[in-house]
Backbone:
């Protein structure tokens, strides 16, 4: 499955959001339908749904990991992950009516045998506190289906979805099919509310008073590095501080332990601070005891090598994001200073994660 640049699609969504001259078409029990000209003989249709839940709840419900869950209308199979928040699925529609509705949305037929769909989400886009998502069917003739989530002043959440149609005016005959799509979106939210899923854990590295944590020397036998009584200078070494990041360190330590699982440095289009890493719970849970066992041996080596009682610690935490500057080509200037809690990055672009992400941080016992 190909990886390709999604920026043009998100830029198109940002353009849709900027339009203010929408024409009201009709309303139904799920929400409102609007349209406007997209130029070149095309029309863009917007579906607007308002949910009686908080934005954070609605936003979590619309994570790719939650949206394509099998229900009465869709049979879904997870295929692969490009990165957290960017996933491939194979979906099969269980009713002909829904097949016709999504054919209208994407400009092509999903088909009885199903199709491969890429669903990717960016948080804090186009503004902080909002999010955007794209559905892309792996077919050249199918256009992306764009979704924008934003909070309302009364505490509820608003979802606006956009799809271009190859007609100069809104096709009123398509209204029942558009309503079916809105019904599916509502069902997806309800499915999450009935059974919430939070698939990731964010880990943070802290309390590094005398530099980064140690790594096993190359070529050292696994049994030796796991043996607390074998802690000597020749077993562990200090990594280079230049270019050090916690995700890179975690990958190296897990590889030494024989547990090669993916460790990510970001999610949902945002970069984590360099002292944080993200893991998939389903992959992390079976091996986290191995990681912490080896890390505790490292702590003993760290004290032995550097003296003192302070050692690096790893624990679940809320994510801290560093702005990717998607729309600006300027670089981020960061002043770095070593203090008692590893590295403090003084950067005005860095911000705390969404409060809803607290649930990712399952307590480690």
Residues:
């Amino acid at each position: 499955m190909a990886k390709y640049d999604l920026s043009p699609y998100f830029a198109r969504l940002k353009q849709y959001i900027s339009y203010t001259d929408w024409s009201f078409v009709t309303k139904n029990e799920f929400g409102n339908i609007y349209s406007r000209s997209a130029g070149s003989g095309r029309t863009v249709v917007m579906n607007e749904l308002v949910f009686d839940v908080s934005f954070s709840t609605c936003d979590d419900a619309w994570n790719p990991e939650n949206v394509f869950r099998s229900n009465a209308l869709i049979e879904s199979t997870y295929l692969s992950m490009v990165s957290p928040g960017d996933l491939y699925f194979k979906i099969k529609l269980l009713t002909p009516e829904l097949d016709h509705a999504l054919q209208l949305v994407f400009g092509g037929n999903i088909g009885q045998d199903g199709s491969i769909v890429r669903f990717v989400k960016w948080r804090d886009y186009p503004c902080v506190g909002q999010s955007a998502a794209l559905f892309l069917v792996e077919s050249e003739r199918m256009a992306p289906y764009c979704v924008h989530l934003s909070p309302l002043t009364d505490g509820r959440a608003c979802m606006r979805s956009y799809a271009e149609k190859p007609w100069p005016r809104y096709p009123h005959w398509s209204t029942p099919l558009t309503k079916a799509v809105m019904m599916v979106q509502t069902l997806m939210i309800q499915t999450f509310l009935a059974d919430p899923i939070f698939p990731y854990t964010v880990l943070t590295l802290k309390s590094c008073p005398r530099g980064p944590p140690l790594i096993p020397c190359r070529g050292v036998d696994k049994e030796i590095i796991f043996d607390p009584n074998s802690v000597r200078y020749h077993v562990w070494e200090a990594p280079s501080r230049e270019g050090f990041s916690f995700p890179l360190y975690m990958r190296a330590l897990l590889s030494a332990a024989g547990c090669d699982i993916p460790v990510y440095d970001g999610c949902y289009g945002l970069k984590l601070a360099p002292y944080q890493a993200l893991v998939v719970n389903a992959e992390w849970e079976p091996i986290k005891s191995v990681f912490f066992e080896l890390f505790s041996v490292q702590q003993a080596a760290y004290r032995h090598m550097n003296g003192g009682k302070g050692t690096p610690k790893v624990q679940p935490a809320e994510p801290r994001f560093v702005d990717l500057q998607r729309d600006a080509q300027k670089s981020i200037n960061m002043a770095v200073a070593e203090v008692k809690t590893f590295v403090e990055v003084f950067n005005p672009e860095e911000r705390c994660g969404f409060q809803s992400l607290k649930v990712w941080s399952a307590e480690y016992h």
Notes: The longest strand covers residues 42-51. Residues 175-194 form the longest helix (20 residues). Residues 246 and 275 are 5 Å apart (CA to CA).
